[in-house]
Write a structure and sequence with these properties.
By secondary structure, this protein is mostly helical. The chain has two domains: about 50 residues, Arc Repressor Mutant, subunit A, CATH 1.10.10; about 150 residues, Orthogonal Bundle (Tetracycline Repressor, domain 2), CATH 1.10.357. The chain is built from ten helices and two strands, in the order ββαααααααααα. A two-stranded antiparallel ribbon has the order 1-2. Strand 1 and strand 2 form a beta hairpin. Helix 3 packs across helix 5, helix 4 runs parallel beside helix 7 and helix 6 packs across helix 7. The termini are far apart.
Length: about 230
Amino acid sequence: MGNNTDNGSEMKPRRRAQGLNRENILDACLHLAADAATDTLSFRKIGKELGADPTALYRHFADKDELLLALADRVLAMGMEGYEQGPYWEVSLQELLLRARASFLRYPSVATLAALRVTRQEGEMKFVEAMLAVLKLAGFEPREAALIHRACADFMLAWTGFSAGLLLLGEKSGEDDRAWVASYAKVPRADYPLAVASVGVMAEVQDDENYRFAMGLMIDGIAARLGKVRIS
């Protein structure tokens, strides 16, 4: 008689399809997506995580695209948990951009998706509403606030998608930086004196440090449009 083991490890019991719902499917996806691997969210792996037949997922999501958009929205909503607008718009804007990024980078495979899509769901709407409220506090008219929101949100999403790509690369990312420095060291300094002199500094900059620096430049630019000095 067979037993519930596979290579000596205990298998998860199969869940009946009617025991599944959107929330526990998304919970399982988040558990898988915390792994920095590029193929963690196949329906086969999700079904295995749930102990259910992968085809049962189609009862709750029309296709993988719908599931991934719901997952991206869940992650963005998680980043918004506990957020409260403060008295200084610059500080609140910075907090929003850091919160969303940090939440997405907990799930790199989700972050790469979110960089290219709009979810059109509650988590995204809360983020948009919060940022527009911050820009209203700053004193921007609605149209300019909308344009600044778009620039800031795209900045965060694009950079976060890039950062997630670095996480998925793993050690290869560090190898690229080392190769960058080594290759410039072979170039005649007289031909590219500034580049050769600066490459070591540039390669040492960590991704999060770089994001924060660029974010500061952006917020300084937004403040300059108002003729205000940014709060540190």
